[in-house]
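Request from the bench team (R.T.):
"We need a structural guess for the complex before ordering more zinc ion. Sequence and SMILES attached. Just send the C-alpha coordinates back."

Command: build protein-zinc ion structure.
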Amino acid sequence: MTARVWIATIAALLSALSVGGLAHATAPDADTLPSYVASIGAQLDPRVERTLVQLVGTGRQLLALRSYLRSAPHLAERWSWTQEQIEAFEDSPQQRDLQREIEKVRVVFVAASPGFELYVNSQVRSLDVQVENWNSNGSVEAAAKGILAAAQALILSPGFAANRPEQARESLKAFLSGYKPVPTPTIAAPGLSLHGQMRAIDFQVHQDGRVVAGPGTASIATDWAAAGWAARLDAAVRAASDKFVGPQASPPAPWHYTYVPEAVARD
Ligand SMILES: [Zn+2]
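Reply to R.T.: structure attached below.
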Protein backbone atom coordinates (compact mmCIF):
# COMPACT_ATOMS: atom_id res chain seq x y z
CA MET A 1 0.00 0.00 0.00
CA THR A 2 1.39 3.44 -0.88
CA ALA A 3 1.42 6.34 1.50
CA ARG A 4 -1.35 7.97 -0.52
CA VAL A 5 -3.63 4.92 -0.17
CA TRP A 6 -2.89 4.81 3.55
CA ILE A 7 -3.90 8.42 3.97
CA ALA A 8 -7.11 7.83 2.01
CA THR A 9 -7.88 4.76 4.11
CA ILE A 10 -7.26 6.61 7.36
CA ALA A 11 -9.41 9.53 6.17
CA ALA A 12 -12.24 7.14 5.31
CA LEU A 13 -11.92 5.46 8.71
CA LEU A 14 -11.97 8.80 10.51
CA SER A 15 -15.08 9.97 8.72
CA ALA A 16 -16.79 6.64 9.44
CA LEU A 17 -15.83 7.05 13.10
CA SER A 18 -17.14 10.58 13.33
CA VAL A 19 -20.44 9.57 11.71
CA GLY A 20 -20.64 6.73 14.20
CA GLY A 21 -19.83 9.14 17.01
CA LEU A 22 -22.59 11.51 15.99
CA ALA A 23 -25.11 8.71 15.66
CA HIS A 24 -24.07 7.55 19.12
CA ALA A 25 -24.49 10.95 20.70
CA THR A 26 -28.20 10.95 19.95
CA ALA A 27 -28.72 7.64 21.79
CA PRO A 28 -26.69 6.92 24.97
CA ASP A 29 -25.31 10.14 26.25
CA ALA A 30 -22.59 10.71 28.85
CA ASP A 31 -24.86 13.43 30.26
CA THR A 32 -27.09 10.70 31.67
CA LEU A 33 -24.43 9.90 34.29
CA PRO A 34 -25.83 12.32 36.90
CA SER A 35 -29.23 10.63 36.69
CA TYR A 36 -27.64 7.20 37.16
CA VAL A 37 -25.73 8.53 40.17
CA ALA A 38 -28.97 9.86 41.65
CA SER A 39 -30.91 6.66 41.06
CA ILE A 40 -28.17 4.40 42.49
CA GLY A 41 -27.82 6.73 45.48
CA ALA A 42 -31.57 6.49 46.06
CA GLN A 43 -31.25 2.71 46.43
CA LEU A 44 -28.77 3.11 49.30
CA ASP A 45 -29.09 4.54 52.81
CA PRO A 46 -31.02 7.86 52.79
CA ARG A 47 -27.97 9.53 54.33
CA VAL A 48 -26.00 8.62 51.19
CA GLU A 49 -28.57 10.35 49.00
CA ARG A 50 -28.46 13.50 51.13
CA THR A 51 -24.65 13.53 51.07
CA LEU A 52 -24.16 12.85 47.34
CA VAL A 53 -25.95 16.06 46.34
CA GLN A 54 -23.48 18.08 48.41
CA LEU A 55 -20.49 16.76 46.46
CA VAL A 56 -19.27 19.02 43.69
CA GLY A 57 -19.24 17.45 40.23
CA THR A 58 -20.21 14.04 38.89
CA GLY A 59 -16.63 12.72 39.22
CA ARG A 60 -16.51 13.34 42.99
CA GLN A 61 -20.00 11.84 43.31
CA LEU A 62 -19.02 8.71 41.38
CA LEU A 63 -15.90 8.31 43.51
CA ALA A 64 -17.93 8.57 46.73
CA LEU A 65 -20.66 6.31 45.34
CA ARG A 66 -18.02 3.68 44.69
CA SER A 67 -17.11 3.73 48.38
CA TYR A 68 -20.77 3.63 49.46
CA LEU A 69 -21.44 0.61 47.23
CA ARG A 70 -18.37 -1.21 48.49
CA SER A 71 -19.21 -0.62 52.14
CA ALA A 72 -22.98 -0.99 51.73
CA PRO A 73 -23.25 -3.86 54.28
CA HIS A 74 -21.54 -1.77 56.99
CA LEU A 75 -22.84 1.65 56.04
CA ALA A 76 -25.30 1.97 58.91
CA GLU A 77 -22.78 1.23 61.68
CA ARG A 78 -19.91 3.13 60.06
CA TRP A 79 -21.78 6.32 59.17
CA SER A 80 -20.47 9.44 60.87
CA TRP A 81 -22.16 10.68 64.00
CA THR A 82 -24.85 13.33 63.92
CA GLN A 83 -24.43 16.53 65.93
CA GLU A 84 -26.44 14.93 68.77
CA GLN A 85 -24.20 11.86 68.79
CA ILE A 86 -21.09 14.08 68.79
CA GLU A 87 -22.46 16.00 71.77
CA ALA A 88 -23.32 12.78 73.58
CA PHE A 89 -19.71 11.65 73.17
CA GLU A 90 -18.34 14.83 74.73
CA ASP A 91 -17.60 14.27 78.42
CA SER A 92 -18.75 10.66 78.17
CA PRO A 93 -16.80 7.80 79.79
CA GLN A 94 -15.89 6.72 76.24
CA GLN A 95 -14.30 10.08 75.54
CA ARG A 96 -12.40 9.97 78.83
CA ASP A 97 -11.10 6.48 77.94
CA LEU A 98 -9.81 7.81 74.63
CA GLN A 99 -8.19 10.87 76.25
CA ARG A 100 -6.46 8.57 78.73
CA GLU A 101 -5.01 6.43 75.93
CA ILE A 102 -3.83 9.50 74.00
CA GLU A 103 -2.23 10.89 77.15
CA LYS A 104 -0.36 7.62 77.71
CA VAL A 105 1.09 7.86 74.19
CA ARG A 106 1.95 11.54 74.68
CA VAL A 107 3.85 10.91 77.92
CA VAL A 108 5.97 8.15 76.35
CA PHE A 109 6.58 10.21 73.21
CA VAL A 110 7.68 13.35 75.07
CA ALA A 111 9.99 11.33 77.34
CA ALA A 112 11.73 9.88 74.27
CA SER A 113 11.82 13.20 72.36
CA PRO A 114 12.36 16.00 74.90
CA GLY A 115 11.46 19.45 73.63
CA PHE A 116 8.78 18.15 71.30
CA GLU A 117 5.04 17.84 71.85
CA LEU A 118 2.48 15.37 70.56
CA TYR A 119 -0.70 17.11 69.49
CA VAL A 120 -4.06 15.52 68.72
CA ASN A 121 -7.15 17.23 67.39
CA SER A 122 -9.76 15.76 69.71
CA GLN A 123 -12.73 17.05 67.69
CA VAL A 124 -14.93 14.46 66.01
CA ARG A 125 -14.75 15.11 62.27
CA SER A 126 -18.33 16.01 61.39
CA LEU A 127 -20.01 15.04 58.14
CA ASP A 128 -20.02 18.71 57.04
CA VAL A 129 -16.25 18.90 57.45
CA GLN A 130 -15.82 15.62 55.56
CA VAL A 131 -17.94 16.98 52.69
CA GLU A 132 -15.82 20.14 52.59
CA ASN A 133 -12.64 18.06 52.56
CA TRP A 134 -13.96 15.82 49.76
CA ASN A 135 -14.77 18.92 47.67
CA SER A 136 -11.31 20.46 48.14
CA ASN A 137 -8.82 17.56 48.45
CA GLY A 138 -6.32 17.28 45.58
CA SER A 139 -6.13 13.48 45.53
CA VAL A 140 -9.94 13.30 45.37
CA GLU A 141 -9.99 15.81 42.50
CA ALA A 142 -7.46 13.78 40.50
CA ALA A 143 -9.16 10.44 41.17
CA ALA A 144 -12.56 12.00 40.34
CA LYS A 145 -11.32 12.97 36.85
CA GLY A 146 -10.21 9.39 36.23
CA ILE A 147 -13.40 7.71 37.41
CA LEU A 148 -15.54 10.21 35.48
CA ALA A 149 -13.69 9.48 32.23
CA ALA A 150 -13.91 5.72 32.79
CA ALA A 151 -17.64 5.86 33.61
CA GLN A 152 -18.32 8.02 30.55
CA ALA A 153 -16.46 5.49 28.40
CA LEU A 154 -18.58 2.69 29.89
CA ILE A 155 -21.83 4.50 29.20
CA LEU A 156 -20.84 5.26 25.62
CA SER A 157 -19.60 1.73 24.94
CA PRO A 158 -21.71 -0.33 22.48
CA GLY A 159 -22.42 -3.04 25.07
CA PHE A 160 -23.97 -0.65 27.60
CA ALA A 161 -27.72 -1.24 27.91
CA ALA A 162 -28.72 2.42 27.84
CA ASN A 163 -32.27 1.55 26.80
CA ARG A 164 -32.81 -0.81 29.74
CA PRO A 165 -32.44 1.41 32.81
CA GLU A 166 -32.37 -1.44 35.35
CA GLN A 167 -29.60 -3.28 33.53
CA ALA A 168 -27.71 -0.05 32.83
CA ARG A 169 -27.77 0.81 36.52
CA GLU A 170 -26.55 -2.66 37.49
CA SER A 171 -23.61 -2.54 35.08
CA LEU A 172 -22.63 0.90 36.34
CA LYS A 173 -22.82 -0.39 39.93
CA ALA A 174 -20.64 -3.39 39.07
CA PHE A 175 -18.17 -1.12 37.30
CA LEU A 176 -17.96 1.28 40.26
CA SER A 177 -17.57 -1.48 42.85
CA GLY A 178 -14.65 -2.99 40.96
CA TYR A 179 -12.97 0.27 39.97
CA LYS A 180 -9.51 1.07 41.42
CA PRO A 181 -9.10 4.85 41.76
CA VAL A 182 -5.83 6.44 40.69
CA PRO A 183 -4.47 8.03 42.77
CA THR A 184 -5.89 6.42 45.89
CA PRO A 185 -7.78 9.23 47.66
CA THR A 186 -6.05 10.19 50.89
CA ILE A 187 -9.37 10.67 52.71
CA ALA A 188 -12.45 8.49 53.15
CA ALA A 189 -15.71 9.28 51.35
CA PRO A 190 -17.89 11.67 53.40
CA GLY A 191 -19.74 9.76 56.10
CA LEU A 192 -17.26 6.89 56.12
CA SER A 193 -14.25 8.51 57.80
CA LEU A 194 -13.32 6.74 61.02
CA HIS A 195 -12.76 10.23 62.38
CA GLY A 196 -16.54 10.66 62.15
CA GLN A 197 -17.00 8.27 65.10
CA MET A 198 -13.70 9.09 66.82
CA ARG A 199 -12.38 5.72 65.71
CA ALA A 200 -9.27 7.32 64.20
CA ILE A 201 -6.67 9.67 65.61
CA ASP A 202 -4.25 11.89 63.68
CA PHE A 203 -1.13 12.64 65.70
CA GLN A 204 1.04 15.69 65.02
CA VAL A 205 4.50 16.54 66.28
CA HIS A 206 4.85 20.13 67.46
CA GLN A 207 7.74 22.19 68.77
CA ASP A 208 7.25 25.63 70.33
CA GLY A 209 3.75 25.78 68.86
CA ARG A 210 5.04 25.01 65.38
CA VAL A 211 4.10 21.87 63.39
CA VAL A 212 7.19 19.71 62.92
CA ALA A 213 5.30 16.78 61.38
CA GLY A 214 1.61 17.07 60.53
CA PRO A 215 -1.00 15.30 58.44
CA GLY A 216 -0.25 15.90 54.75
CA THR A 217 0.92 13.56 52.04
CA ALA A 218 3.56 16.04 50.85
CA SER A 219 5.37 15.87 54.20
CA ILE A 220 5.63 12.06 54.45
CA ALA A 221 9.05 11.61 52.79
CA THR A 222 10.69 14.53 54.57
CA ASP A 223 9.08 15.07 57.98
CA TRP A 224 7.80 11.59 58.76
CA ALA A 225 10.31 9.25 57.07
CA ALA A 226 13.63 11.11 56.73
CA ALA A 227 13.29 13.07 59.99
CA GLY A 228 12.25 9.88 61.75
CA TRP A 229 8.96 11.05 63.29
CA ALA A 230 6.98 8.13 61.87
CA ALA A 231 9.22 5.65 63.68
CA ARG A 232 9.29 7.66 66.91
CA LEU A 233 5.52 8.04 66.94
CA ASP A 234 5.00 4.37 66.21
CA ALA A 235 7.39 3.35 68.97
CA ALA A 236 5.52 5.55 71.46
CA VAL A 237 2.10 4.27 70.36
CA ARG A 238 3.17 0.66 70.70
CA ALA A 239 4.91 1.12 74.03
CA ALA A 240 2.09 3.12 75.60
CA SER A 241 -1.20 1.63 74.47
CA ASP A 242 -2.76 -1.52 73.08
CA LYS A 243 -5.76 0.36 71.72
CA PHE A 244 -4.35 1.87 68.54
CA VAL A 245 -3.85 0.03 65.26
CA GLY A 246 -1.74 1.52 62.53
CA PRO A 247 -0.43 3.64 61.13
CA GLN A 248 -2.56 3.59 57.99
CA ALA A 249 -0.60 1.93 55.18
CA SER A 250 -2.77 2.56 52.14
CA PRO A 251 -2.64 5.32 51.23
CA PRO A 252 0.31 5.98 53.56
CA ALA A 253 -0.58 8.19 56.53
CA PRO A 254 2.02 7.74 59.29
CA TRP A 255 0.03 10.10 61.56
CA HIS A 256 -3.27 8.17 61.32
CA TYR A 257 -4.07 5.38 63.79
CA THR A 258 -7.32 3.51 64.22
CA TYR A 259 -8.63 3.58 67.77
CA VAL A 260 -9.98 0.26 68.96
CA PRO A 261 -11.43 0.67 72.48
CA GLU A 262 -11.48 -3.11 72.85
CA ALA A 263 -7.80 -3.96 73.47
CA VAL A 264 -5.95 -5.32 70.46
CA ALA A 265 -4.09 -8.61 70.73
CA ARG A 266 -0.48 -8.09 69.65
CA ASP A 267 2.15 -10.69 68.97
ZN1 LIG B 1 -6.73 10.47 59.86
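Two things stood out. Residues 7-28 have pLDDT under 50 and may be disordered. Residues 83-125+194-259 form one domain.
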